[in-house]
Amino acid sequence: MEIEHLKIIGTAHVSKKSIEEVKETIRAEKPDVVAVELDVGRYQKLMREKLGLGEDKQLSVKDLIRGENIGLFLISGLLTYLQNRIGDDLGVKPGSEMLAAIEAAEEIGARIALIDRDIRITMQRIIDSMSLREKLRFLFNILASFFKKDEIEDVESLKSEDTLDEVMEYFKDISPKAYHVLVDERDAYMAHKLLEIPEDKVIAVVGAGHKKGIRYYLQNPEKIPPLVELLSSKQQNSTLRKLVLVIPLLLIVPFILAFLSGVNIQGDILKFILMTGGFAFIGSMVAGSRLKSAIIAFLVAPITVLHPLLAAGWFAGLMEAKLRNVNFGDLENLNKCDSLHDLWQNNLFRVLLVVAGANLGCSIGTFLTIPQIILPMIGKIIGAG
């Protein structure tokens, strides 16, 4: 595809003016292809909503609680919350300009091209790229937004280059690596997908913040990273990740050595179970869990401590989510939370508190076992030797 035949429309995702601009431009230009900033999943969701089919409001509890998915759920859910909040202020549903582009393309018989990367890959790469400090800072900023009453008066200002640069710089300040994944990588990916389009005349409808980056990569295609690199999941070897892998060994090895040395460890095993399980139970209850969820935390904590890929909070949260019948309505209702009391009444928020509480309690219990159990056990082993 020749770049001269490409027109990029930069939109604000919750702008009535953008909707009209998209429709008018496509009808006037009559392109062969209309490329939209959507992946297959988001496109299918828009089509279901258009047909009035809605979507399953029951969350998959198992998928929600799984360790590798809860981060995706939280970040994508919180970002959706922010976009929905802006949309509510302006009376425009997020994604309306993409739907307008699709409908206009259908009117003139143009092919529709989905050029955005799968949102799940983007979110996973964001999580993998962020440090613990960046994640906490991001979460703090999102939670702080729950209590801000400011309304958006001029959404069109969001499309101006000066305003966009200011917003992007703010996000880059919170997490430069996450910014790179969310913006730069997607600019490169969408440019790559545009270059793959064989038709001559193309209109691309993307968020205004991506327009400059996409044009850069189109003009410098040699700068686009290999597609396999943009679609892979990064794994950061952070100090925290290494620590999580090492701790189980530090706990298991003394027990094995004590057993081989003939040291009586039955009492130590019982103390280990009571400390890790007990603190996980307390953490779960303090976080507001049901008794059944706290009991689950107690039972699984000693096992999860020894397995670097498991966490007591996931299991406690799974039970809590079942007991509270968490659904997507709870996520949508976060938009209406104006106080801590409102958050406390939200089932999803309560489940996440239980997950955090049980995990924190289990971690406290685990670290307390070192001076209370592990070090004395090492002394017994040395004495037995």
TrEMBL record:
Asked if the keyword Transmembrane helix belongs to this entry, the reply reads yes
Name the Pfam families on file. TraB_PrgY_gumN
Spell out the InterPro entries in the cross-references.
TraB/PrgY/GumN_fam (IPR002816), TraB_bac (IPR005230), TraB_PrgY-like (IPR046345)
* Keywords per UniProt: Membrane, Transmembrane, Transmembrane helix
> In its keyword annotation, does this UniProt entry include Magnesium?
no
Task: From the record, give the transmembrane residue ranges.
Answer: 243-263, 269-287, 294-316, 348-370
Q: What is this protein called?
A: TraB family protein
Which species is the source of this protein?
A: Methanothermobacter tenebrarum
